[in-house]
Design brief:
The protein is an alpha+beta fold. The protein has a single domain, classed as Glucose Permease (Domain IIA) (Distorted Sandwich). It is 15% helix and 22% strand. It has 3 helices and 11 strands, in the order H-H-H-E-E-E-E-E-E-E-E-E-E-E. A hairpin with a 4-residue loop joins strand 6 and strand 7. The longest helix has 23 residues. The structure holds zinc ion. The site of zinc ion (ZN) has 8 residues, from loops.
């Protein structure tokens, strides 16, 4: 019963945050309460916050597509440099997404990390280590992270093509409601470490044919796997 009550509270928080985001326009970053709605994604130490800043020299212009089925839109519930998206995750996006939604690879690559056995999550940093996730290495120094998954059948070392289903979305780990946390980061070969979280870099999606960095409150439409 406690679990159900907590889920209800989290859903209420998500609805509030979505309402704020939809009213906030370009200023949604300022009104989204930290960690409400989109949730935290990993414990970020003070040292990490201080040591990691956006890197303007990071490679750009890649062929990333939004990580879900083409023709479908999801709302950006948290953008960059706000809430839990600081430090290593400064350039992440959160997309409000019902549990069980197919999550698709944003690019070709190879699975570097995969976990799908967690059934635990909640709106507290204490759940950080419980997130199911997949990390796909591009082989060019960058990789993508798909976090809070409900499940995944991916295995480490498995080749992935853009559009492949890497898992189903969920709310495992530190999540204040169901959503997909997605980020592009440096791979170990690109200067990152071996953990699931490395320094994110500024990137764009190319579903419209033009680079798009969707802002909080907007609902970008995927052209992936159409
Ligand atoms: Zn996030």
């Amino acid at each position: 019963m406690d679990w159900m009550i907590r889920r209800g509270a989290r859903c209420a928080a998500l609805l509030v945050a979505l309402a704020l985001a939809s009213c906030g326009g370009d200023d949604a970053d300022d009104v989204l309460p930290a960690d409400a709605g989109s949730g935290g994604d990993g414990a970020v130490s003070d040292a990490a916050r201080d040591a990691t800043t956006p890197d303007a020299a990071a490679p750009t212009g890649h062929d990333f597509l939004l990580p879900w089925t083409g023709g479908v839109a999801f709302t950006v519930t948290q953008g960059h440099n706000t809430g839990s998206h600081v430090g290593l995750s400064s350039w992440a996006w959160d997309f409000g997404m019902a549990i069980g939604t197919p999550v698709r690879a944003a690019h070709d690559g190879t699975v570097r990390l995969a976990r799908g056995d967690s059934r635990t999550g909640g709106c507290d940093s204490a759940f950080s280590a419980d997130a199911n996730h997949v990390v796909v290495d591009r082989g060019d120094g960058l990789e993508s992270v798909y976090l809070h998954l409900d499940s995944t059948s991916m295995r480490v070392g498995q080749p992935v093509r853009r559009g492949d289903i890497v898992g189903l979305s969920g709310e495992t780990g530190w999540a204040c409601g169901a959503h997909l946390h997605f980020q592009i980061q440096r791979s170990p070969a690109g200067g990152g470490g071996q953990s699931r979280f490395n320094q994110t870099v500024p990137e764009s999606f190319h579903d419209t044919g033009q680079p798009l960095d969707p802002a909080p409150g907007t609902r970008p439409v995927s052209a992936n796997a159409r």
